[in-house]
Amino acid sequence: MSSESTNSGQARKPVRYPLLLTVLSGLSFVFLLLLLYFVGNSFETLENQLRFRPPVAGQGNASGAYGIEIVDGQTVYVPVYSHIYADGGRPHLLESTLSIRNLDPNRAISIKSVRYFDTGGSLIKEYLDDKMRLGPLETTAFLVEKRDTRGGSGANFIVIWDAEEPVYEPLIEAIMIGFSEGKSISFTSPGRALIERVE
To answer: Does residue 24 share a domain with residue 88?
Structure first.
């Protein structure tokens, strides 16, 4: 017998268990269809959950407890950073803006003192010589320039304010921004009341 007939005989070996392979292929196909159907429905359900819905009048916090403080004076600590560290300890210089917003739509507040301290707790600058009035919904800002590195990574503002009558607690925060070697960074730092008189 020639080698050709031997090779053709080997190529014609019958496939074993043809019925089992057919059943397994069919089950795999059905499983794949079910999986695709399930995944498609899951995405559709998620889309429906996240879909924008316009607000409806009458809905909201049923208890009415929104946690708005009514105060007539505070001493507020605000963390500020004239630089932060990156790339293994290299300083990244930042420009800082202290923002003070009177949130009360009807009553004024008075800013009594805005003092800037360095990392060691030493006073660098007093920004006000006298009281500063902030009218309803008025905002003021104080700037620490990028080139002023005296504050360091642990600088802070102490802000003292009061009002003739109780008002909504003002929003006092610092905004830092910096650009260096093609990179930019910005973040906010909220104030924290140290002393307050709450109505």
So the answer is: no
**Segments in the chain below pLDDT 70:** 1-17, 38-47, 49-50, 58-69, 198-199
Residues 153 and 186 in one domain: yes
CA–CA distance, 47 with 176 (Å, rounded to integer): 36
**Long-range contacts of the stretch 130-138 (C-beta < 8 A, 24+):** 133/108, 133/109, 134/100, 134/102, 134/108, 134/109, 134/110, 134/170, 135/102, 135/108, 136/102, 136/104, 136/105, 136/106, 136/107, 136/108, 137/101, 137/102, 137/103, 137/104, 137/105, 138/101, 138/102, 138/108
pLDDT in tens, 98-124: 999 999 999 999 999 999 999 999 999
153 and 84 in a single domain? The answer is yes
Q: Domain range holding 41? A: 17-51
Domains in the chain, number: 2
Which residues have a Cβ under 8 Å from the Cβ of 106 and sit 6 or more positions away?
136
Residue 9 forms part of a structural domain: no
